[in-house]
Amino acid sequence: MILPIYIYGSPVLREVAQDIDAAAYPNLQELISDMFETMSDADGVGLAAPQVGLPIRLFCIDLTPVAEEVPKGMPFKQVFINAEIYERGGANVKMGEGCLSLPGLNEDVVRPSKIRIRYLDENLKERDEEFDGYPARVIQHEYDHIDGIVFTDRVAPIRKNLIRSKLAAFTKGKFRAAYRCKLAR
């Protein structure tokens, strides 16, 4: 089922999400499936649970549409539950980012090129992995969502001033998106 994507200005996007207790989420697999379907429908490569109105520590990535950016041997489609990035390193790289919760807005963001992350996969199996390059960027972007951070929080201060009116427009429902959205106040 395609879920509505919550738009910038929705309070859930600013909440620090809570860990998932598997026993409390008997429909976890259904939620994960719905999130992948929602992400695909919106032409995204990542989607965090707060973006569909759930303040839980869950995000999904599917890098299939950008396969040329993914190092060989790295999975394209992955689920991260109760994730914790505990190491960041490598070069700081500036790259354009967008977000399904801010349709049509793209800005440069500086992020470390490598991360180490502990998480549970979709089968609740513990994982501890290192990612670099584009996968590390997407994971950090989605991880920010579960910490109540949106990518515009990380743009240079001068750019943030320049996009202030665009951000205000989102909070008033003045945006266009080719997918189902929700602005919760």
Automatic annotation (TrEMBL):
Transmembrane segments: none annotated. Its EC number is 3.5.1.88. The keyword Membrane does not apply. InterPro entries: Peptide_deformylase, Peptide_deformylase_sf. GO terms for biological process: translation. It catalyses: N-terminal N-formyl-L-methionyl-[peptide] + H2O = N-terminal L-methionyl-[peptide] + formate. Binds 1 Fe(2+) ion. GO terms for molecular function: metal ion binding; peptide deformylase activity. SUPFAM superfamilies: Peptide deformylase. Its cofactor is Fe(2+). It comes from the Bacteria. The active site is at E142. Keywords: Hydrolase, Iron, Metal-binding, Protein biosynthesis. The keyword S-adenosyl-L-methionine does not apply. Pfam families: Pep_deformylase (PF01327). Fe cation binds at C99, H141, H145. NCBIfam families: pept_deformyl, PRK00150.1-3. Belongs to the polypeptide deformylase family. Removes the formyl group from the N-terminal Met of newly synthesized proteins. Requires at least a dipeptide for an efficient rate of reaction. N-terminal L-methionine is a prerequisite for activity but the enzyme has broad specificity at other positions. This is Peptide deformylase. The lineage of its organism: Bacteria, Pseudomonadati, Bacteroidota, Bacteroidia, Bacteroidales. The gene is def.
